[in-house]
Design goal:
This protein is an alpha/beta fold. It has helices at about 5-15, 40-45, 110-120, and strands at about 20-25, 30-35, 55-65, 70-80, 85-95, 100, 125.
Length: about 170
């Protein structure tokens, strides 16, 4: 049986300092890598004869506006069905140049997940075969999931603070 400790040993033993910030959240091993190491690490997890992380569950983004130089994070969830274990990979990116390699050569399923992440967070996936918006209009000039916009429109007059207990 594969557990998180064995994963840390396998991944850390193979990649050394390339892999950092190991942690566990809700039983899922989480670690961070540099953008340039993403393809190599994911291919290792997928093709490893014992680990067998052959299912890409999800790709998403997170915006940390106060994390200077690493404001955006591309998050990858992988699953090993055979070993019944999951892993979370985080790649932190600067807002000025949020580029990470596409995983479409390794997983066909990455195609739409990367498009959605680009659409909502503005993360660019180099090598993607058709990186364009998937849910929002093509002429949008912003990425709506970034924390750059007020949650409420301050010009609205139909929301009187006194009526909402504020």
């Amino acid at each position: 049986m594969i557990d998180n400790q064995r994963l840390v040993e396998e991944i850390g033993g193979h990649f050394g300092e390339k892999v950092r910030q190991f942690g566990e959240n809700s039983g899922i091993l989480t670690f961070s890598i540099a953008p340039g190491d993403l393809t190599e690490v994911v291919a290792f997890l997928k093709e490893h004869p014992v680990l067998k992380f052959n299912f890409l569950t999800d790709i998403t983004g997170i915006h940390f506006p106060d994390n200077e130089g690493a404001e955006l994070c591309s998050v990858y969830m992988m699953h090993s069905w055979e070993n019944r274990i999951r892993v979370r990979i985080k790649v932190f990116l600067p807002k000025e140049n949020p580029v990470v390699p596409s995983l479409t050569p390794l997983f066909n399923a990455a195609n739409w997940m990367e498009r959605e992440t680009f659409d909502f967070f503005g993360i660019l996936f180099s090598g993607h075969p058709n990186l364009k918006r998937i849910l929002n209009m093509e002429d949008m000039d912003y990425h709506p999931m970034r924390k750059e916009y007020a949650l409420e429109d301050p010009t609205r007059r139909d929301k009187i603070d006194d009526l909402f207990g504020r």
